[in-house]
Amino acid sequence: MMKNHIDVSTVLRRAVSESYSNLVTRPTGVAVRVYIEAQIQAASDCVVTVIDFSSVGMMDFSCADEIVAKLVMQHENGNPSFVFSGLSESHIEAIDVVLERHGMSLVSQESDSNSYIAVTH
Questions:
Q1: Who's near 47: CB < 8 A, 6+ residues apart?
Q2: Confidence band (pLDDT; 50, 70, 90) for 46?
Q3: Which residue segments constitute the domains of the chain, with CATH numbers given?
């Protein structure tokens, strides 16, 4: 199985600012999502895309909506499938609220102090 790994903190620094480590404001979320979409298209043969939040500090609701919910909604056919890894409890809380608003479910599992989630419709 082909897997694509995307480090969100690297995307954030490239898409917004070298010194930025928090995902706040909707324009930031849009910039990060657009950059991630380009990486997904470039790795079109990958079945699973791992979106790694382990080096991201804070994430607000608007970025959770722009990055997680909209990515999942844009790829409802499941191609690629997403695994969101390296999530803190506060990341999961923001993502859970946003997904609930969209009628999606959140499945979370912790592994070696890194959390990852699966999203279902």
A1: 1, 2, 3, 79, 80, 81
A2: confident
A3: 3-120 (3.30.750)
